[in-house]
Each structure stands twice: as structure tokens, then as C-alpha cells.
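Bug #2210: C-alpha cell dump truncated for Amino acid permease?
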Amino acid sequence: MSEQNNSMKRNLKTRHVSMIALGGSIGTGLFVASGATVAQAGPFGAIVAYLAIGVMVYFLMTSLGEMATYSPTSGSFSDYAGKYVDPALGFAMGWNYWFNWAITLAVDIVAVGLVAEFWFPDTPGWIFSAVALLFIFLINLFSVGAFGEAEFWLSMIKVVTIIAFLVVGLATIFGVIHSDVDVIKNLSVGNHGFVGGPQAILSVFVVAGFSFQGTELIGITAGEAQNPDKSVPKAINQVFWRILLFYILAIFVISALVYYQDPRLLSSSTENVAVSPFTIVFKNAGIAFAASLMNAVILTSIVSSANSGSYASTRMLYAMARKGEAPKIFAKVSKRGVPVAALILTTAIGLLAFIANTKGGAVAYTWLVNASGLTGFIAWVGIAISHYRFRRAYLAQGKQLSDLKYKAKWFPFGPIFALIISIGVIIGQDPASFTKLNWEKIGVTYLSVPLFVILYVGYKLRYKTKKIKLEDVDLTQNR
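Reproduced locally. Full output below:
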């Protein structure tokens, strides 16, 4: 049964797909955590790390783009892994990704309350969290077009803020805006801008990896895009370079205008927006309301992330239900093309985790967050493997590359490079915990890995699945 016959609506326009991909990877990682990366690795150490991860993400996006334009589906890489590699891998990736975004929704909802306390310190934060959760639920309940439009404008706010930051920052660097900052000194700290050696750069790899999480949303939106053959390649080719430019230029501006050992860079957090590197630069340029401005932007980013998380997890659960890997009720959609049951369950998971945090269940909440910590990177590993198998099967079955609507660059180097870097980032989360055999820290940091393995092995043992032979890979197009 095609998605169209099952009442899914292809109502996402090209501008929606592009802005969802752009907004998905611009969030608190840039507005808050970017300062800490400069403090850890120095100006050029941070830039090198973000460049390396950015190149890897580009290869992942082109890999996903090739598969998504060939066979657009809301199940995205879960469907591709099941069709091109092994049904057990698709099953594990699907549940892994649904769980990731359902918990991320809860984390973001809690963060909304923390950020809102900046303006309303005497009002309980859970009130703002509840309002945000209701808003996100209603947006996703109405239609995919409503989700796309909301995400377009939420992402636009972030983009305008970054552009304003870059304009103000560059004007300060080049003396248009008066400043006493010694730009040359700031950029040449340590060993010509590098601090802490290779280990420091590797530690920034992890932060950069989390910052770029969300770019894979483009694969899920392909299932409801009006014209995925055009919108997906356009989003990949245009959006990626904008993301990379935003990150690299933003880190350059921060490095030039804020000394790398400034204590505010290491203490930046969503709970204290006054020490965000963006706030510091705006304040130094004479913008009096900088803290309120950035608090509003960070709040927008968190709501945007939660909105995307609700959409992504709902569509993944819907796609798994259609394949028989989740209860059938989650495959049912409303007249507007929304999988309501899947949306309700995803929202309920977010609500339960949120309640656990507010009712004093901090331990349970922390473990939930840690359990979802590496699931995004696991999805990236699955994308790289799936594309490698797809392209090999495509050629093995005698098909012509010229017939593909969109071809990923530098195959097979691209997916292999992305696979190696993704695995490296997963291992590099906390290598010290292994050397010291600190089992509690190992469990907290790497919990999502054994959970994924249990899903994979459990499905494999029950259904006795095997890796699909290249000549038997299902290359049917889902149009």
C-alpha cells in the first residue's frame, strides 16, 4: 500500500524541507555550547573539528539524499536499512530513532521551563513547559503543512539571529564598531590558535557531532514532500553549505572577540543565557537588550527542536507500524494525513519523562536522557551502511547510475568516511571511563548502544533474519 493510498499528504513545500533541514541543526549547540569548544581546543582547533564533522555530515546527507529521492518514505533510513541490509537492522534503527526523539521532546520541554524563568523567576517553570507541549501537539495534530509552516518561521528566527550576529561580529572585528578587543591576540592563543593538542580537538568532535544532529530529518520529510526529486537535492546542496558557513563563521567571530579562557565560555548554559557567547558579543557591541534577545532566540530554538522531534518520532512510529514492526493502530491517519495515535504516544512519552523530572524522579529522568544520548550517531552509522549497500545492489542488479535522480558524491569514500567518523565519535564520548573501568560512567554514557544491540539481536533471533544478498535487495521505488 502506498503512502498516498494510506492518506499521507505530500504537503511539505521545497522551502519547508530546506528550512527544516537548516533549522534542525541550528540550536543551542551553536547559541550556547559553541563557546565551550573554543575554550577547549582554541580558535582554530574548534574550527578544524567543526569542519571535519561538517564534511562527514555532508557525505551522510548526500547518501541519505540519494536514497530519499529514489524511494521517498517517512520511514527513511529505518526502511532503507531493512530493505538494503537486514530487516533486523531496520527494526532496531526505527525503534532507536523513535525513542531518541520522544525523549528529546521531553528534554526540550523541561528546558523551556528553565529558559522562561529568565523573564518570570517567580512563576513555576512547569507551566511554560506544559503550554509548549500543548502548542507542539496541536501544531502536529493539525496537518503536516502546519508543522512545516511553523518550523519554517521558527527556523527563520534562528537564521536571522545568526546573520545579525555575524554582521555585528565582523563589523567589530574590522573596526566599524569600536572595541578594545585584541583580535590578533585572541586568534593566536596557544600554538597559533590551537590549544590542548589532538585530544582537545577530538573532544570537540563530540560536541560538534551533537550540534549537527537533526540534519537527517531531511530523509523523513521526503515522505511528505510535494516534489522530493527537487526539494531534497536542493535542501542538501544549499542548506549544508549555509549550515557549515554559519558554524565556522560564528566560531571565528567568537574566537576573535572573546578570549578563549574567558570563564563565561566554559559556564555557558541554557539556564544562564547571560554567558552565551552570542550574548557577550552583542553586549560588547552596545546592544543593551542582548540577554533578553538571546533568551528569546534560545527559547525559539528549543521549541523548534521539540517540534521537529515530535514530527520525526511520530512519522518513524507510523512507518514501523505499516511494516508490522509496531502495533497497527499507529499506522492509522486522520483525514488531514496525520498519524494521530503515533502522535499521542510520542507526546505521552514526553509528558511522562517531563513529570518524572518535576516530581523528583531526577534519577529516572537522567537515565532516560542518557539512554537516548548516542542514538542519533547510531542512526548516522545506519545511514552510511544502508547507502553503501544500496549503491552496490543498484549496480549488481544491472541498473544505470545515470538513471538516479540524485547521485551522492565520492562513492564509496563518502559513506565509508562517515561510518568511520560516526563510530569514532561514539567511542570517543568518554574513553577515560574504560581506562579506569568506571562501570557507572560507562553505563551512563553508552547506555543507548546495548539497547540498540538488544533490539537488533532480539529481532534477528526471533525472525532468523540474515543479511540480504545484493541480487535480492528490494530496489522497488516508493513513489
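Output looks complete on our side. Residues 1-5 have pLDDT under 50 and may be disordered. Marking as cannot-reproduce; reopen if the truncation happens again.
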